[in-house]
Amino acid sequence: MLAIRAAVAADFPAVLDLFRRIVVSGDTYAYPPDCSPEQAQRWWLDPPARPFVAEDDGRIVGTYSLKPNQPGLGDHVANCGYMTAPEFRGRGIASVMCAHSLATARDAGFAAMQFNFVVASNTGAIRLWQRHGFAIVGRVPAAFRHVRDGPTDVFVMHRLL
Amino acid sequence: MLAIRAAVAADFPAVLDLFRRIVVSGDTYAYPPDCSPEQAQRWWLDPPARPFVAEDDGRIVGTYSLKPNQPGLGDHVANCGYMTAPEFRGRGIASVMCAHSLATARDAGFAAMQFNFVVASNTGAIRLWQRHGFAIVGRVPAAFRHVRDGPTDVFVMHRLL
I want to staple A152 with a disulfide (CB 3.0 to 4.6 A). Which of A19, A146, B27, B161 is the partner? Predict the structure, then answer.
């Protein structure tokens, strides 16, 4: 039974392990594939980021991290990242996390959500975000160095809340 | 005689004062109009940002801050912000700083430069960046709370180096 909840300190080692397993593949996130747990904690777990976990029978199978996309006069727009454990893909976990994050962001008073760096070759994710109401509002040429495919475009995606 | 050079620690108080005078107007940057010098220093002066100053007869009349736009697999794209002292506007200082920053970024090995948050009502800046080779590659609706005009669109601008 999948449940989404705010991450607590006891979850951090499992979340950092999941983070490492995702970024090491170098195909969806800009985070350095060899980044340290301290860097990962700063990007994903520490304030102003608010980390959540998707838990299934006591196992952490996914995580998302919600934060303001800009400080100050841009902090009404949320930003969110999602990671699903590779062995739990294809079960709709990212979709459940996305829906949860949209509700969380709305409750927190955000007026919109923006993704700054959706890798163009990550077509499954793009379709999923579109099903959750996001539109492509920008395309940055060759902004991602995909570890296998090389220079790859990046989409900016957005939806109002 | 206008000269652009890397900022040194002795410049920081003047740069932070200029930063404060720009952001307090709330019409071009998301930075909180009431942010602290410590926040400003972290955003504009501390690594990985590389701050520069435009100096005219010993006075600091402008500053720019260059950094990678993303970590890791996105760190070949630079990001830069520019501030000109209000009393020195209209003299082409931003244009000189932009040209200098493009050369600096190229020398540092960046392959492109991206602006994430160009306020749509800042038409003078948009035209200036276009003259320097930047194209609008995205438009985010209402991402900026302009202190007088309210919700205002934001452009993503980009050029290869």
Answer: A146
Contact between residue A111 and residue B145 where contact means Cβ atoms under 8 Å apart: no
CA proximity to A69, closest of A111, A36, A100, A107: A111
Q: What is the pLDDT of residues B34-72, one digit of tens each?
A: 999 999 999 999 999 999 999 999 999 999 999 999 999
Residue written as tokens 């070759």? A121
Contact A135, A157 (CB under 8 A): yes
β-strands B77-84, B112-119: how paired? parallel
Q: Report pTM.
A: 0.96
* Local structure of residue B18 (DSSP, 8 states): H
Q: Report the alpha-carbon distance of residue B51 to residue B160 in Å, rounded.
A: 21
Beta-carbon neighbour count of residue B132 at 10 Å? 16
What ipTM was assigned to the predicted interfaces of this complex? 0.95
Contacts of residue B35 in chain A, CB cutoff 8 Å?
A: 71-72
- With CA atoms as reference, the chain A residue closest to B146 would be A73
**Are B115 and B157 a contacting pair, CB within 8 Å?**
yes
Q: What is the DSSP string of B78-121?
A: EEEEEEE-GGGTTSSHHHHHHHHHHHHHHHTT-SEEEEEEEETT
Residue A156 has its nearest CB partner, among B30, B70, B138, at: B138
Q: Do A138 and B147 touch (CB under 8 A)?
A: no
Q: Does position A1 have pLDDT exceeding 90, yes or no?
A: no
Distance CA A84, CA A64 (A): 9
